[in-house]
Amino acid sequence: MTPVEVVATPGEAERQAILAPLVAFNDAAVGATERHTVAIVIRDAAGAIVGGLWGTAGYRWLFVQYLVVPESMRGLGRGRELMHAAEAEGRRLGCVGLWLDTFSFQARGFYERLGYRCVGRIDDYPPGEARFFLCKRID
């Protein structure tokens, strides 16, 4: 048996090689599902993307991986617009809910005001802070 190996500079090839058998196993266990990348953007007056939401829909849940609203646009409802658009896109894709994670120094309260509930927490990640996992059913 060959030893395990730590790859010094892992790239997309290693990620895909690890991910492929995991996805195959999961799909066999619960039934294959379509996966969709979701991108909802905020543009500035010149048309450049300055923020937005990035996610992945699969297994009938949309994972919000990234959400950013430029500081100059905060407090104007743009984050709420992004999340409502993501929920609408999730419904269009046949999702039953959305899930995401956020840090204690980020936006937990924002998500909770939109109806998301905390389903998990890791303390001291990063040290002195916490990471929260939230979800919301949309079905």
Summary?
By secondary structure, the protein is of the alpha+beta class. Helix content is 29%, strand content 35%.
Relevant terms:
139 residues; 3 helices; alpha+beta
How is this structure best described in words?
The protein is of the alpha+beta class and 139 residues long. The chain has 3 helices and 6 strands, in the order H-E-E-E-H-E-H-E-E. It has helices at 12-30, 78-92, 108-113; strands at residues 36-43, 49-58, 61-68, 97-103, 117-123, 130-137. A 6-stranded mixed β-sheet has the order 1-2-3-4-6-5. The termini are far apart. The model has no long low-confidence stretch (mean pLDDT 97).
Main beta-sheet strand count, sense and barrel state: 6 strands, mixed
Alpha-beta content class: alpha+beta
Uncertain runs are: none
Number of strands: 6
With strands numbered from the N-terminus, the spatial order across the biggest sheet is 1-2-3-4-6-5
* Percentage of residues assigned to helices: 25-40%
Secondary-structure element order, N to C:
HEEEHEHEE
Specify Rg, calculated over alpha carbons: 18 Å
Mean pLDDT: 97
Please count the helical segments. Answer: 3
Overall 3D geometry? globular
Assess the beta-strand content as a share of residues.
25-35%
Report the oligomer: single chain
- How far is the first residue's CA from the last residue's CA? 48 Å
Architecture blueprint of SSEs:
Blueprint: H1 12-30, E1 36-43, E2 49-58, E3 61-68, H2 78-92, E4 97-103, H3 108-113, E5 117-123, E6 130-137
